[in-house]
Amino acid sequence: MKHNFKITIPLAIVVTLLFVTYQRMTGPTYPKKFTLEKGQESSKVKLLRSHESHEGAKVEIPVFNSSPTGMKGIVYYKRFPTNDDWSTVPLIQTQNGKFMQAILPAQPPAGKLQYYVELVDGDWHQSLGSREEPVVIRYKGAVPAAILVPHICFMFISMLLCIWAAFEAKYKTQAFRKICFISTGTLFVGGMILGPLVQKHAFNVYWAGLPFDWDLTDNKLLISMIFLALASGLNLKASRPWAVILAAVVLFTAYSIPHSRMGSQFNYEKGKIITDR
């Protein structure tokens, strides 16, 4: 079977790794990073933007060495999106004195809180977020690892295979058709079978995309699945490399959209989960 694996496999791996890194940097569920600075000291802080709904989310701030007892802080929070007044919870130093901690109240699956942190130590003051630009955390139900891990693996394997197939299609080898078929199968298993199971555990709904709702993650999966399935169908009996390249471009574009944008969100007024638009 004619192929160009020495070139296409490394290219596919590099592109896939770049996408994985991009998703981690841009996704709204990954922790928000801040840098605390006081004099010559600095510390990295991560504020959670996703947490399981069975317990409150922890806010943890390191204490500077020069301020073992003087540093104080308050966490301001309210439900999102609501017109609630801002509530506060003080940061309490841990027994070892190295951190200050506060617990945000637990929320139902897809429930969100917006919050920010105010820190003071004498004349020093620093804010992590603000009322105008708070950190938003979304709660979710626990997803069993037996479902979540295969889902993630199948999704990224499918992306790797699709990109690989596109590079092989560019060189018009014989291998791209078989790789495209496998990519379609892995995307179907990871996205259309395991994906709804993840969604059900996390937000109590199997599918929140078209035709039922506007969840962007589900919709971009659906569009990618349609184009990849069409590419496989068009290449069953004939060689049509353009179809595979087009499917890869669509998948490429879909994965460029940060994960969980326009996702499930608990509406506190209606008491039910809706899609964040």
Average pLDDT: 88
Please tally the helical runs, counting DSSP H or I stretches of 4 or more residues.
5
The secondary-structure class comes to alpha+beta
Low-confidence stretches: none
Rg over CA atoms, rounded to whole Å, is 23 Å
Q: Termini separation (Å)?
A: 48 Å
In N-to-C order, the SSE pattern is HEEEEEEEEEEEHHHHEE
The percentage helix is 40-55%
Mass-distribution shape: elongated
Residue share in β-strands:
25-35%
β-strand number: 13
Whole-number total of structural domains: 2
Layout of strands and helices, then pairs:
Layout: H1 5-26, E1 32-38, E2 41-47, E3 50-52, E4 58-62, E5 72-80, E6 87-90, E7 92-93, E8 99-103, E9 112-121, E10 124-128, E11 135-140, H2 145-170, H3 175-203, H4 216-234, H5 241-256, E12 264-267, E13 272-275
Structural notes for this entry:
The protein has 277 residues and is an alpha+beta fold. The chain has two domains: 5-27 and 143-275, no CATH class; 32-140, Immunoglobulin-like, CATH 2.60.40. Helices cover 40% and strands 26% of the residues. It is built from five helices and 13 strands. The chain has helices at 5-26, 145-170, 175-203, 216-234, 241-256; strands at residues 32-38, 41-47, 50-52, 58-62, 72-80, 87-90, 92-93, 99-103, 112-121, 124-128, 135-140, 264-267, 272-275. Strands 3, 5, 6, 9, 10 and 11 form a six-stranded mixed sheet that branches. The protein has a three-stranded antiparallel sheet with strand order 4-8-7, with no helix packed on it. The chain has a two-stranded antiparallel sheet with strand order 1-2. α2 (145-170) crosses α5 and α3 (175-203) packs antiparallel against α4. The N and C termini lie far apart (48 Å).
